[in-house]
Amino acid sequence: APVSPSSALPSYFMKGSIIQLADGELKRVEDLRTEDFLQSAEVSKELKIDSSTVERIDSSRTPDAVIIQFSVGEHKVQVCVEVLVEYPFFVFGQGWSSCCPDRTTQLLALSCAKLSVGDVCISLTLKSLR
Amino acid sequence: NVEPRSVPVFPWHSLVPFLAPTQSD
């Protein structure tokens, strides 16, 4: 079963939030780049970056939510998550993207692209998980 | 005197979803 969305997005997605990279550097959430995540994961002993490709985006019975099906990692494991339409994912080489960019910008002031089938999102797994 | 307001700092990994598939081996 998909994970149920929370009623509000975490405050770190708000434009202007200060994010600390693994090397200690501070950046604003809207300034993060693909390389920041990749380099931070390289430093991490526990976490590694996986590619998660959007396979399907379906409507949900929960108001203002969608169910996104991802194909995760080299083994293409199918994972479904239920998130609010404004929830931002970071797409490789593109940046923040959500199912409803206008709503993300309205609620968080964070500029977003439209998340579409085929987009490859940055996600995390444990390095020890094999 | 005005106390400086502390700004919250979030770790980079909080922004990335944990899509760890369950391995069945």
Structural summary, described in words:
Chain A has two helices and nine strands; from the N terminus they run ββαβββββαββ. Chain A is mainly beta and 130 residues long. In chain A, the strands form three sheets. In chain A, strands 5-4-3-9 form a four-stranded antiparallel sheet. The longest helix of chain A has 10 residues. Chain A is globular. Chain B is mostly beta strands and 25 residues long. Chain B has no helices and one strand. The model of chain B has no long low-confidence stretch (mean pLDDT 79). The chains are: A mainly beta (130), B mainly beta (25). At the A-B interface, strand 1, helix 1, strand 3, strand 5 and strand 9 of A face strand 1 of B. Strand 1 of chain A pairs parallel with strand 1 of chain B.
Structural class of the helix and strand makeup of chain A?
A: mainly beta
Task: Characterize the largest beta sheet of chain A: strand count, sense, and whether it forms a barrel.
Answer: 4 strands, antiparallel
Low-pLDDT runs of 5+ residues of chain B are none
Shape of chain B: rod-shaped
Residues in helix, % of chain A: 10-25%
Number of helices of chain A: 2
Mean pLDDT of chain A: 92
Distance between termini of chain B? 62 Å
Fraction of residues in helix of chain B: under 10%
Q: Beta-sheet strand percentage of chain B?
A: 5-15%
Which two chains touch over the largest interface?
A-B, 38 and 16 residues
Structural class of chain B: mainly beta
CA-atom Rg of chain A in angstroms? 15 Å
Question: Roughly what is the average pLDDT of chain B, rounded to an integer?
Answer: 79
Low-confidence stretches of chain A are: none
Number of strands of chain B: 1
- In percent, how much strand structure appears in the residues of chain A? 35-45%
Continuous helix count of chain B:
0
Distance between the termini of chain A: 23 Å
